[in-house]
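Sanity check

After download, print the first record. It should look like this:
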Amino acid sequence: TGTTSTGTTGVQTCPGPCSAVTGDGLVLRLTSAGGYPSAVAAAAFSASRSFRAFSALTPGVSNTIAASVGGSPCSGGLSLAATPTFSTSLYKASWVRAVLRTTMVYVDYPVLSIGFSLRDADGRARVMRPDLVNVSGVALSDSCNVANIDATSGIGFCDLVVASSAFSAAPGTQDVPVTLTVLYAGQPAATAVVTAHLARRIVASALPSGALGALIAMPQSPRLPTETFTITMSAGSGTTSLFSFQTNIYFDESRFTYSGDAFVSSTLYTLSLGVTHNGSNSFVSVISSAINKDSPSIKGDAIPLLTATFAVASAAPAATYPTAFTATVISFSDPGNNRFYQNQPAQFTDARGGLQSSGQMAVWAPDAVALLAYPSSAELFNAYPLNGTSVTADVMTRLVVRSVCTTGSGCSTGSDSTSSTVANCSSTTVAGHGALSGCRLTVGASTTSGAEAVVITAAFRSLDPADVSVRVWHPSAIAVSAAQTTLRRIQNARVPGSCAAAYQRTALAVTATFGGTARPDFDADVTCLTTLTSSNASVVSVAGGQATGLDIGTSAVSAPNGVGALTITVSPATVSVSCVSAVLIQDSTTKFVPASVATRSLNITDAVSVSASYVKNAEQALLAEGVGGSIIAFASLSDGTFHELLPSTGLTISAYAGFDSVLNASTLVSGNSNYYRAFVKANAPNGADSCALNARWVDTCTQSLLGSGPIAVNVSMPVAQSASVVVSTACGTGATCSLTRTGNAAVRLGRLTSAQLAVTVTFPGQSPISFTSDSRTVYEVVSGSDLVSVSSTGLVTARASGTSFGEAVINVTFPSYSRASNVWASVKVRVDVVTAISWQAWPYPSYTGATATTTLRGVHCTGKYQRATISVAANVSDGTTADISTSNYLTASSASPGVIASPITRVSSQLLIDGVVATGSASITVIFDGSVSQAAVIDVPTTKALVSALQWTTSWQSNSPRTFAAIIGGTQITGVKATFDDGTQFTDAISGPAATWISPSSYLLFNSLDDQYITISAAGVATILASSYRDPASLTVASGVCLSAPNVTALTQVYANLEPAVGDLDLGNRYGLPFSADGVTTLTVGQTFTVPMRINFGTVAYFTFATFKLLYPSDYIRVTAINYTLPTAYSGGVDYCNNNTLGAINCFPSTGFATSLLRNNPAYVIGSITFNVVSAVPGVGNFTVPAYSAGLATSSTQVTQYPVGGGTPTAGPGPVVFNGGTLGSRRRSIADADAPASLARRSGPCDQCQPAQSSAVCGVGQCTRQCYGDANADCVFNGADASYLKTILLNQPVSPAYNTITQWQLRQLTPLFDIFDPT
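Expected structure tokens:
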């Protein structure tokens, strides 16, 4: 029976609901990515499931749970939204195996390295990381680092340093039991014991008391290939002070290597050394001298000389080499350079004990010393009886290899392998439980029972084997069951497409008991893990854990090989459709308990339990347009069973009359065409009805109605709470959006002409809903309609025409939408225009502290005028201003082109007033965007801007501002800042922007007072000619004579220091004075100074040099140290320097080649010599290089000598000044003193007199500081001044009273008098 419903489409009969509880026929399926799915009847729209971990849920991993409704037990259905996660925690280790990585521990190589493997109680290598791994039984100075334990393999290494007190002096080795303990929270969890082997302590021998000679101490311990080791050398000198020594250390380069920079001197000596590469007879030659010849420490039986580092060659065979090193003492010399011991072999002490004539060195092989193993999976579940698939576990092996790690850091941990070529695997317990092939255990067809432990032994050569165990679970009592074993024909129903009779379908279930271990058996639902088959596929089909009848007859449904067979009968009897039930499941309403499963400790057979439910529309209302849900429908059959209905089997959904304006029910679920989705239409009214939707099952072959049923829906959309409108486009700089008109200049400021609004409406309990483009949204300009217009989709546009500006208000309402007609919102938008521009002129070039100007003057007496840039600001109607100085839409012109030329040009994108042609005034007009303009007057007076101050600003060297360093003839553009009496500045008068229109030589005079070192051109370009060895060179700049301008001068002092040319040898400091302790003062007695040696390698591919000799002034200085090392990119023979002859240093590098690593380096330091000043007598000595030969090459076989036939370097040699000695005549210094008092005491009528007028007008007694030409300061301008000028220019001696030239006299000597100046 049903009720009658009246709707807009007429009268319809609503069938009554099914008598069964709605939803009982649905299947809510829960699945885990790592477990097995479960099919559960969904009573009250909920289900629960326990997931067993099985092999996929290993400890320490995360997993998810998903839910679906409908479909078969193992596939299909409608996926629901929520996917809670859970994770499993790691178990503590309860077992550990330890092995030694260091087979012997030496006192000079005290690393004890222990490898270990961890497993939990189930044999899994993936364990919880211990809090501590403790090692006891031997004195240690370190502890294990648990952070390096591998999370997958459970393998870790302890690299510990054994304390020196643990080593015994007794012969032989010590066997010490060492216990490794794994602890959690301070509690032991597992222990293992290994026996460490400690080598005896060998006390190094010493030379007999009073004996002369050298003793070299070798390592006691072996080394691996590529590993480094050190040797130490000491000397016995008896009662004589050992001031200097020379020795050669010999070795075989096929077994041991020397890196070239591994010698370290003791605190008593400095070293100079070279290496000769000669195969088995290679040697390092060492030359050294004491730092302090008077030190008592350079005398005695055990004087420390040096420490050297070598390495074992990568291809050195493992062996003990008793003659690995030999050495010869070439000479021991006393402070007077007398050789008191020479040409004698050195003694050695090594692992053999006693004194030896050679040094022994043992080489280890990087062999495997231990084997560790672990299973890739500790438990296997045999799935073969269920689906014919085998499962495997690999025995992972780790070879522990003796490695290079002298301090415990950087030790190689090796890598894991499953290859049988690494280890051999065997088992005596595998029969019946699996098959072992190589190191892989397979559980499958050959497995007939479970096992608590299949023990597999991994072996490698003669190393101790490693065991792993794998637990095997085997299924038994496999049973197939079905919800119903008889399937009947559904009356009047046919299969779509074939139109064959349609029969019932039923859910299948497969259970199995897993056992065979020492642990309790357990039952598991393995339905979806099992491959089910039908013995008569034409009668019953099986898929997804569901059986479907196809034709009358019987069929056995079973697991593979007929296991657990269940007979299903397809009967000719019929069942009828009682009714159709359907529910609407709301979007995103799946609920899980718990919502997120917490991390927990799981055994393999433990379970994760979770429950889920979903909400149907009868329980919760649809609250908004577009909200709905998916529809699940099924037929209730007369025998009490259920049959799910799909669109493909004839299901249709439609809205009943009255609800057709509320719901849209004709679309399919996105991504799943098996289900319909219904949702609330736009403008739908509220309503609730048990007959809102009609589910109809129609036979697709006959089109006859098989059944129908109502779907209850409750649409209860609340009234809007609020509305909001904002400008979504970024526009303007203030809180309110600012637009501008299309034709206004504000467009050039980046102001937009339109902006988009964004509208939302908020309903109770819901997130804001966008209504921007909704047809029910009405936009209205309620004020400022002359400013903007707005489209139906919320685009606000400034009106193109008009000059007005201001604020517009836009209201947003929803008059045709009943649930939002009560809310509205408004937003303000401005329209702004450029109202005016303003501009100022600024001095060009710009400088710090500049101010705006309206005047451009002539510059000194150059005939050129000042320039100015124009800065422009635009005023906007919203009160803001914008800097438009570089806008491309600016133009400017002059109304008086006879004063300032027009049009105005640009510099660096800014307008530049550069066309001054005469004095006067000119009106300059600046126009923006062709529409907005501003005019202002620029004056060009007759008064000139005169130089009032000069300052040197030259950047000579970045790391030495007072050094001019270059090769001979090298140039440097100097820098001068000129300040004028009107306050303007040229910060770089020589090469800055000012020099582009005013030549520096037109108003500046440059002069060098030391032109034997540096000259300077009229344009301010300095040229270096020689190094200044005592004092810096002096350069001056003065302003030219112009009207009544004072003569302005500035002085700078700079050290001239030549750089070496290509192939040249340079000596001394690169910056400052070449020969000086601090680079700025000459040397005094007692000072120590270092002379670096540099070579310019140029740009050639190779450079080679053979020999050079350096003579030094031995009357003043003595050599204290020589450091001579060829670059690391150099390949060649012996390279060292000696000081065997007082006053001379000879360097003997054999031919070799420096590669391109040294290209373009004009100052590569190849060594240095340290001297001590021993004489207090003032004077000058010289460094000279009488012999020097070098070569440039383009290949490793071609050499071109430089200089040709040898020669003297250009940059390096030169004088060195001691104790204030003089270099002879030089330019006189410039004092800051002004005119002598006799000249400054008067003031007369000659303040403005010109030089040519001085003699006539400025008579005796009338001379003032303004009268030029009186060079000798005698108040008379006559021939005596010319004679004095001559002595100055020729650098001849003059009266002692005038040895220092005053600044006043310097101004008298300026030649910048423009006699052609009409003024």
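If your output differs, re-run the checksum step. Summary of this record's structure: The chain has a mean pLDDT of 81.
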